[in-house]
Fold:
Amino acid sequence: QVTLKESGPGILQPSQTLSLTCTFSGFSLSTYGMGVGWIRQPSGKGLEWLANIWWDDDKYYNPSLKNRLTISKDTSNNQAFLKITNVDTADTATYYCARIGTLYYPYWGQGVMVTVSS
Amino acid sequence: DIQMTQSPASLSASLGETVSIECLASEGISNSLAWYQQKPGKSPQLLIYGASSLQDGVPSRFSGSGSGTQYSLKISGMQPEDEGVYYCQQGYKYPLTFGSGTKLEIK
Structure:
């Protein structure tokens, strides 16, 4: 059974760095073909893809976030991470991690709400 | 980036009615298209991938079709549990992009 769960700071101030953790079970990110992605959703709005990381440490980012993103993994502890630097109020959203199936997402975490506010 | 244009933005349907939602890609995506359903306060759920393949556990009243730049999701016989917001997503190339969503309600 595949499960994923996101964790994060809840609230942070503008210009700070957002650090998110995805803890998963039911698969390994050291297995050929496996990957994890991050997607976010501002309240009442649509979905925005942020980044993917693959079993071979290949990484892909949304260029609209202009080098503010860093995705990484810890295969020993079944975790994936996302950092977003220099946050502002536009980064307020629910952040989801999801296991990749080809370039779709068959498994999602419950999401973690992040608020950027001074 | 590939732009995904979804229509309509919202619609209401009666129980048992057949519903269709459209998704238009700004360039050909070779059937690399997924559909998700999202209910309030919940994570999106994958319904269809590869434009027409039904994800395990999804009711057979959901179907997907299309090719090239035009794709559609059909619900054959609207049920109360089908209320929610539906999103398309292209998996053809990075950056991955989603449609803006279609809100489906019971009439």
About this structure: Chain A has a mean pLDDT of 97. Residues 1 and 104 of chain A are 18 Å apart (CA to CA).
